[in-house]
Amino acid sequence: MKCKDLAIDLMHLSTNELNEIKDLEALKKHLKECTDCQKKLKKLREVDTFSFLASPRSEKYKRKMAELSERIKAESRPVLTDAKWEIDSAAEKIHNFVKAYTGSRRDKKVAIPVIRKGTGFVDYPFYEAMGSLVTNEKFILTKDKDNRPDCVLLVPILR
Prior knowledge:
The protein is mainly alpha-helical. The chain is 60% helix and 9% strand. The protein has 2 domains: 3-74; 82-154, Orthogonal Bundle (Arc Repressor Mutant, subunit A).
């Protein structure tokens, strides 16, 4: 099948009008192989969603939106940008690791490679999370002879 011959079928697929499609199996097979048609289908679905949202509100729409709203509220993940959420989660994991690691030790220093290995973080979001912890005064960074961060000290909570 050629892409230009599928334009109408893609439109029907985007609106879930499957009975209007000439050869559904051939269309599915083509979509598995053709990234251009996959992109076109995605765009068509976005347009269809936008036009649905812009249309007068039906009872079905109100029910769907209420269901969606309830599902979103039920999610435990905070509503933040993904990057901020990822960095905050990494900072919390790093902070908990350092607290657990230094718990009963006399030496409260933890080398950065130990933290990276213990938490499994690579460059991102590790350094962003560390910056957040230092900025929020939960950690103090010590530096090596080349003035690069090498260890972390947990800031004691003063009460």
